[in-house]
Each structure stands twice: as C-alpha cells, then as structure tokens.
Write a structure and sequence with these properties.
alpha/beta, Aldehyde Dehydrogenase, Chain A, domain 1, Aldehyde Dehydrogenase, Chain A, domain 2, 7-stranded mixed β-sheet, 21 strands, 38% helix, 20% strand, binds nicotinamide-adenine-dinucleotide, Ald_DH_CS_CYS, aldehyde dehydrogenase (NAD+) activity, EC 1.2.1.3, NAD
Length: 491
C-alpha cells in the first residue's frame, strides 16, 4: 500500500514521485510506502492552508466543533482497527495502542465542546458607560510536528484545538509512523473539514520539518519531540518571532517511601517503566526508594521484570513490545555500557533477548540497575527504552531533591500512605505532572499537559490551556458614553 500527501483537499503524489518503505519493528516485514516529500510539496500545503484560513476563521465555533464531534464518532467506530495498525507500525502492545486512539477520541469530543465554549471574560470598566470583554482570535496556519511514540494521541492534542480555534493546519508527522497520521487525516476529510483546512505532508524532519519551521506564512509551530530538535526549532522560530510550543523529553521518577503500599507501588513501577517499552515521554526511568524498603522493592521488581513477556504487540500475551528501530536498540545498548562503567549494578536485563523468535525485531530486555547515584549519566539522560535506575535515599527531602536534580521536569510520582508527605511532595516536586499513589503515566486530556524546565518552553497542551496556545486574546472596549473618556486620567 502507498500512502499519499493530502494537500488542498486532494490526496496527492509527492512532486518528485519518491517513496520509502515502513517496516514492522517486531518482525522487520515491510508494511507500506510513504512519500519522501520535498519543500515544493510543503509550500503547496502551506499555500492551501493560508488560502483556507480566510474562510475557516469565519466559520462559527459551534460549526467547527460539530465537525470534530463527527471525527470523534469515526475514531470511536474504527478504534480497534486503528489500534492494530498502530501496533504494526510502532510496536506498542494492542491494549496501549487502543489507549492511544482513545485519547484522540476524548480529545475530539472535548475540543468539539470548546467550539461552543471558548470562553473569554466580561468585566467591568473603570469608566462609566463603557463595556469591556475579551474574545479569542485564531492566528493562521499552524505547523504541527509530532513524534512517533503516540502516533494518534499527540497529533490530536495539537490539530483539534488548532482547528476548533479557527486556525488551519499543515501536519508533518514523525517519519516512523505515517499510517496513523494518514488515517487521522482521512477521518478529518470524511467528517467534513473543508479543502485546505488540514494538510498532510510526509517527509523527513531535516527537509519537511525544517521547511515548515522556516516558512514565513506559518506563524505558529506546535512541536513534540526530543530536546535536541526542540532547541533547534526554538532557535529558528525565535528569530522570526513565531509562536512555538515545545514538548520535549523526560527523566521521570517514582519515589517510594517506607510506608508505601508495596504491591501498588510495584504495579505502578512496572507499568510506568516498561509500558510502551519505556518509550513514553512520561515513562519512569528513575526509581527513588527510601532505604528501609530498598532491598524489598529491588527483589520484588527483579522477580516481576524477569517474568515480563517480550513479543509482537499484536500477541495478547505480550507485555513488552519492540523498540521503534535499530538506532533505538543501539542507543539503549550504549547506555547499558555507560551505566556499567559508571559503577551501577546490573540486576537484570541489559541486553537484546537471545530468543531466535525475536531475532528479526528490535527487542531489548527490560533492565534494572541498582547502586545508581544522581551524578551518573543513566540517572540524568533520557534513554527512551526499558531501563530503570534505582537510587537509594534516606528521607523525603532527599527524595524530592533527587527528583528535581535533572534538567527535565515532566512527570513525577510518590507512593506513600502519609498525607503530609504527599502534600509536601505536591508542593515541592518541580514537574508539570504529579501523581500520588500512581505511576508517572496516565494523563487525562482535560487537564493541562506539559513539563517544566528542560521539558518545554512553558506552554501546555490539553484542556483549556491548549486554547491559549492556538488563539490570540483580543481585549475589546465599547464606550457608549458619547464623550471622550480617558482611562487612568478621567474620574
Ligand atoms: P525527534 O526530535 O527526533 O522528532 C520529532 C519530530 O521532529 C519528528 O516529526 C521529526 O521528523 C521532526 N524533526 C526532526 N528534525 C527536525 C528539524 N530539523 N526541523 C523540524 N522538525 C524536525 O523526536 P522523536 O524521536 O520522534 O520522539 C521522541 C522524543 O519525543 C523523546 O525525547 C520524548 O521524550 C519526546 N516526547 C515528548 C513528549 C511530551 O509531551 N513532552 C511526548 C512524546 C514524546
């Protein structure tokens, strides 16, 4: 099967007619072909989006929302089939792929409702016979650049609020996961999005992503991906004074206190560290444990980790699917070596599996390091694989300090039965997401999502926070006094 770009309401071949193959990460089998677009394709998409903006911005919000309701219904009808395609292309186990699609469904219904809300403020004026209010204005063409690890959810976090606010979209999905992007845009088309409002251009980050962030007719960029790319996107867009939202990497920790419910904590750790094979931006890769229970937690984790089943995500018995590609396996291997050299103790894992049935996929054994100190690179850098590092601490303040001692600030969690400790943690953990007695993953779409410090640039996705990124506030003053009234001067 051959995927196509979607430009100005037409499914189009790339101008230069070049394609590349996408492979199943669990088996190495070729799946489908995807365009290798060039900046010419991208320019056409931006032109279509720019032209469509003049009419889309005037479509009433509730009507824009109605289309998103239909999108939500179509996603719901096709949930199982979309999840299976995601698993084939990206590797995560089916249950998690269904969760990824469900997030898109939730976002469609939530943002559809914003078509009727999009509330501003009405407020008194300091002068008599004067009325004051705020309204939201769309901005223009939104460039959407997404990673491969949430092939449905992340594009919907960006595209749906952009559209409901009245912007038009040029979408450049991750090179590794084009299929779900293609299906999502087909659904948007089917639901009735007018030609030019949503455009899809496949291609590499260095060619199509680069052309999108540089394009003078694209005033806002919503980017999720690695810190390295995000920094570059910030530099380019900063020079042009574009509006840019960056959601970047994580080095998230779970804290386990001596008084924690250990069964619950171990369940939360396994799910957060090895779900999606550790390839979530919110994955737990550091485990900060109070000294009294450190050995028990280690032993129980080791036992559970060694029982995890690796395999294709399509197989119901699989707990841990493959990594996305060969480079990801190499990166994880490199960090295993670094961890050993730094003096961490490898409790289990640390290698590719030697099962011949898994030889053609990008698998890596779930790994546990103990004896890890916060200075080590494995405790500081994002590995983005199934590797968990255990750090021992004496007290809650020490645990919080360890949590905050990384450049990232996405998610953190604490397991404790002590309500005072929980509230102290809520006050002092310096991350954008905090979980009490749950792992580091599991965000819901009506709350703001995003990280502090090195994880981003202060914007948030999801909830009403997303509307702020995709719209411009306009303050409106209506003076019905019939005379000149000077603010701050006249009584
Ligand atoms: P990546 O930075 O390699 O790629 C992300 C996107 O940027 C892709 O679409 C890619 O093609 C594009 N890109 C690459 N070079 C570009 C350039 N020069 N100009 C413009 N676009 C360019 O990241 P990835 O490997 O796809 O994703 C994994 C990373 O994403 C991890 O660091 C993970 O933590 C992060 N992530 C963050 C969040 C979050 O919400 N904070 C969510 C998911 C993933």
């Amino acid at each position: 099967m051959r995927l196509l770009n979607f430009i100005d309401g037409q499914w189009s071949e790339p101008v230069k007619g070049q394609y590349r193959n996408i492979y199943d990460p669990a088996t190495g089998e070729p799946l489908w072909e995807v365009p290798r677009s060039t900046p010419e394709d991208l320019n056409q998409a931006v032109e279509a989006a720019r032209a469509a903006f003049s009419s889309w911005r005037l479509v009433p919000g509730p009507k824009r929302g109605e289309i998103l309701f239909r999108v939500g219904q179509l996603l719901l009808e096709r949930k199982a089939e979309l999840a299976a395609k995601m698993t084939q292309e990206m590797g995560k186990v089916l249950l998690e792929a269904e969760g990824d699609v469900q997030e898109g469904i939730d976002m469609a219904f939530y943002m559809a409702g914003e078509g009727r809300r999009s509330f501003g403020q009405t407020t008194p004026s300091e002068l008599p016979n004067k009325f004051a209010m705020t309204v939201r204005d769309p901005i223009g063409v939104a460039g959407i650049i997404t990673p491969w690890n949430f092939p449905m959810a992340i594009p919907t976090w960006k595209i749906f609020p952009a559209l409901v606010m009245g912007n038009t979209v040029v979408f450049k999905p991750a090179s590794e996961t084009p299929r779900l992007a293609y299906e999502l845009v087909r659904i948007l088309e089917q639901a009735g999005m007018p030609a030019g409002t949503v455009n899809l251009v496949f291609g590499s980050g260095t060619e199509i992503g680069e052309a999108l962030i540089h394009h003078p007719d694209v005033p806002l960029i919503s980017f999720t991906g690695s810190n390295e790319t995000g920094r570059h996107v910030a530099e380019v867009t900063g020079r042009e004074l574009k509006r840019v939202s960056l959601e970047l990497g994580g080095k998230n920790a779970i804290i386990v206190m001596d008084d924690a419910d250990l069964d619950l904590a171990v369940d939360g750790i396994i799910w957060s560290a090895f779900g999606t094979t550790g390839q979530r931006c919110t994955a737990c890769s550091r485990l900060i444990v109070q000294e009294g229970i450190y050995d028990v937690v280690r032993d129980r984790l080791k036992e559970r980790i060694e029982k995890l089943t690796l395999g294709s995500g399509l197989n119901e018995k699989t707990d841990v699917g493959p990594l996305i590609n060969k480079q990801a396996v190499e990166k994880v291997k490199k960090y295993i070596q670094i961890g050993k050299e730094e003096g961490a103790y490898l409790e289990t894992g640390g290698d590719v599996p030697h099962d011949p049935g898994l030889a053609s996929g990008h698998f890596f054994l779930p790994t546990l390091f103990t004896n890890v100190s916060m200075k080590m690179r494995i405790a500081q850098e994002e590995i983005f694989g199934p590797v968990l590092s255990m750090i021992k601490v004496k007290s809650l303040p020490e645990a919080i300090e360890a949590n905050n001692q990384v450049t990232y600030g996405l998610s953190s969690s604490i397991f404790t039965r002590n309500v005072n400790a929980a509230f102290e943690a809520i006050r002092d953990l310096a991350t954008g997401l905090i979980y009490i007695n749950a792992g580091t993953i599991g965000a819901e779409i009506h709350l703001p999502f995003g990280g502090t410090r090195g994880t981003g640039n202060g914007h948030r996705e999801s909830g009403t926070a997303a509307l702020d990124f995709f719209s411009e506030w306009k303050a409106v003053y209506v003076d019905y006094s019939g005379r000149l009234q000077r603010a701050q001067i006249d009584d």
